[in-house]
Amino acid sequence: MSSEISVGSVGWTTTPAVREHLERAELDSLQLWWQAANYLSAGQIYLMDNPLLREPLRPEHVKPRLLGHWGTTPGLNFVYAHLNRAIRARDLDMMYVIGPGHGGPGLVAAAWLEGTYSEVYPDVAQDCDGLRRLVTQFSFPGGIPSHVAPETPGSIHEGGELGYSLSHAYGAAFDNPDLIVACVVGDGEAETGPLATSWHANKFLDPATDGAVLPILHLNGYKIANPAVLARIPDDELLSLLRGYGYEPYLVSGAVPEAMHHLFAATLDRCLDEISSIHRRARRDGWTQRPRWPMIVLRTPKGWTGPGTVDGKRVEGSWRSHQVPISDPRGDPEHLRQLEAWLRSYDPDALFDDDGAPVQRIKDQNPTGTRRMSANPHANGGLLLRALRLPDFRDYAVPVEEPGASTGEATRVLGGFLRDVMRRNADARNFRVFAPDENNSNRLNAILDATARTWVADTEPDDDALAPDGRVMEILSEHTCQGWLEGYVLTGRHGFFSCYEAFAHIVDSMVNQHAKWLKVAAGLAWRPPIASLNYLLTSHVWRQDHNGFSHQDPGFIDHVVNKKAEVVRVYLPPDANTLLSVADHCLRSRDYINVVVAGKQPAPQYLDMDAAVVHCTRGIGIWDWASNDQGGDPDVVLGCAGDVPTMEVLAAVDLLRDHFPDLRMRVVNVVDLMRLQDEREHPHGLSDAEFDSLFTRDRPVIFNYHGYPWLIHRLTYRRHNHDNIHVRGYKEEGTTTTPFDMCVLNQIDRFNLAIDVIDRVPRLGPSAAYAREALQAKLIEHRHHVSTHGEDMPEVRDWTWRAR
Predict the structure, then answer these.
(1) What mean pLDDT is predicted for residues 269-285?
(2) What's the predicted TM-score (pTM) here?
(3) Strand, helix or coil at 562?
(4) What is the dihedral of CA 39, 44, 49, 52, to 10 degrees?
(5) Contact 287/206 with Cβ under 8 angstroms?
(6) Structural domain span for residue 581
(7) How far apart are CA 222 and CA 226, in angstroms?
(8) First and final CA of the chain: distance in angstroms?
(9) Those residues with Cβ within 8 angstroms of residue 193's Cβ, 6 or more apart along the chain or in another chain
(10) Which family does it belong to (predicted)?
């Protein structure tokens, strides 16, 4: 049974009958550190001058715009103070992840008290001038955000969007056997779907080889304006819920600081003892059962130690303390008086010396060196990053004697490469693959020859490839996979995420946050590059004919392209050898979000490995073997990006050659989608001269694209020949049907493409009428055939490229 440790039994009522766990001097020092952190947190929200209140507070000392979040911060500072005590006492390697990201002033305050902030930012020194800069910069133009951000030492979790703290924490703990990640989950955050699922991450944590996560569910009762659900259900119901998730929860509840210090210290020590025991049994004694990991439920008032009432209304212990509890100290003399009284209640003269530095008793509470959570190298993963040992991807090449003459399954070939990446890095334990129950479906089965799926829960005899130390992370939650991957990569390792294309959208917001993190981190010299986020989107729109309309959506590309050009890369390799080349490049890259789209079904193979490497290095190029405009200008350019659109372009070229032997056609294939953009907009963008040499300045361009066609127009709108670029792509036409019928429904098929060429090449004119009629007849024949036989016409199903 778990323990409930509380001060009093109702609301914030407390009793003095609390067993003392701390020595008096230790208790007083803890209280002093907490006071300092709370003072600095409030000061960051309010002050732009007079940071130590060495003179009476005046309106001009207060920021004109008050931004920030006080309500959650004192609880976060309280936990931080106690974690520091445990780190010093036990020499722990510990990180701090906070879900309430708007508790940013607390983590900035802690980093400054620990000295890390001044080491990273020397102009924010531990003196009066540095302290003035510290408080002024918070939520101030040209300063730092109100939430935990890349600028905050010790952080891997921005927290601007709620729901991902626990999955990030577990991602950090995987393969870090000596690391303990203390993760504070806010009670508002706990209402999100991603957070609710991520409690199950404890079924994937191997106590023999991984670190530990200590969840701390912080119940302060309120969100912005509403009660928090988990704070308003009975304690027995809450504890039953958490036990059902597989945890051993300990409840610490109260509001009297001295009593709460004793109670929390005792509970934290008990939890750390249990974690140590779990690791010892697994590593020394060979214990293989899934442990029941400890966690803490911390119930404290929202806005703890802040003003009790403002304007006659309750603030501490209320939703009114969520952001800025005293709203107008510059304009309201009573508010100014109340703010000064609140700040002085922390006794700043006892916290800081004459120079503005923390007094020695506070400094003595900090761990030293990299044991400081704000200086833990795991929270700055580029410091720990080791390059992967990669096999030569050329060794996995699919033989291609003639373009289009053979078939292959691109992602199955990739699986063999990733299998050996896994093997080569087994000792380093710095590479994992992630998928929402789709690794095998995405044809990456070969990876399971090198490792199992991670699984610490119960097993049955006919289960396939499950083991506690497996390195294939599968849970049917895209959010959790994404969070694990981000936590893993941000702490200095490498990962690969495969997903059904349509459902990558589930992590759109998480990609937003990570892209913003990368953008900001790239401007911080003290944060070295980290491994890229690598996505394989497969089971894609053009081969989701069997699952139907719900599974047909290529729009994740559009979403990613909205992010900063320095961060995003999008690749559409047309066959297995180009996929291998792209995958090798992505695994070597740093600080990017790489999106690779590739099919898993048998498909034509076009380029041998040497040609594939050249083509992928260029990112875009003319396929001379498919073109016949050598020695003159083309009548038409046929562009293509994506495996199925490429095949349909080649089939259209085949048809057009039969009908118009003298029609000069140029085929341009795009692997790196960002090559289409202007060089002024994206680092991979082509110059106008390069673009014009491929697509001409005045000839019609029929572009067959994997996704939504308007993205190509957006990428090319500045080009000289944009008015002549006509894009075919997915236009929200889909159902459960045949593969080729999906193409016809969206008019990316060979017949519609050939008709488009006829209509847009002026010299063909009326002479093409019979050919056009024949192609339209083929579309009618196709419709009749699929509705009668339930499969595509043999000439479509069995088509292969004919060399001429």
Answers:
(1) 97
(2) 0.95
(3) coil
(4) 10
(5) no
(6) 393-603
(7) 6
(8) 78
(9) 163, 479
(10) Belongs to the XFP family.
